[in-house]
Amino acid sequence: MKIFRQLIFIILIGFSTTYYAQKSDLGAWYMYFGNNKISKKLNFHNEIQYRNFDGIGDLEQLLIRTGIGYDLTENNNNVLLGYGFILSQPYVQGEKTENIEHRIFQQFITKQKFGRFNIQHRYRLEERFLQYDFRMRFRYYLGFNIPVTNKEMLPKTLYLSAYNEIFLHLDSPVFDRNRVYGALGFVINKNMRIEAGYMNQIQENKNRGQVQIGFYNNIPFTKN
Question: What is the CATH number of domain 2-217?
Answer without folding.
Answer: 2.40.160
